[in-house]
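Onboarding guide, step 5: your first structure request.
Type a short instruction followed by the sequence, for example:

Predict the 3D structure of this protein.
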Amino acid sequence: MFTPGLDPSVVKYMFVEVLAQTTRCVAEDGMVRLETPFLLPDGHVVRVYLRLGPEQEVIVSDGGYTSRTVTVFSRFEDEARARYEKLRQIARDLGLEYANGELSFVAMNLEQAIRRIPTLANAVVAGLGMLTW
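The system replies with C-alpha cells like these:
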C-alpha cells in the first residue's frame, strides 16, 4: 500500500545515500580499509579490512581489533579465555572464521565479500557487546 507523501523507493534511495555518506574507504598497507556505518558500543564505527589472497579470493577481516579490545578490557586470564571462546562461538554461528586473533571470511569475488561485510560487522558488535565500556 502506498503512503501518500512517502514513496518507498525515494525513502530507500535517501537511506542508501545517507549510509554511503557515513562510509569511508581507503587504501592502507596493501589492503583496503572500509569504515562501515555499523557502530560499536563506544560510538566508533566498525572497520573491516579487505585484501586479495593468493588465488585472487577476497579476504575480509576485522584486523584483529575485536581480540585486541577483548584483551584490553579483560581483567583476568580466565575472563579473557571465556571471551575468546565466546568470539569463536559468534564466528561459528555467523559462518565466519576466528583464527590468529581475527574474525574473518573468504569470498570468491568482491560482490560476495561486500554482501557478507554486514555479517562480519555484526560479529564485531556482538563480540564487543559483552564488554563493559
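Each response can be followed by summary notes, for example: The longest strand covers residues 31-39.
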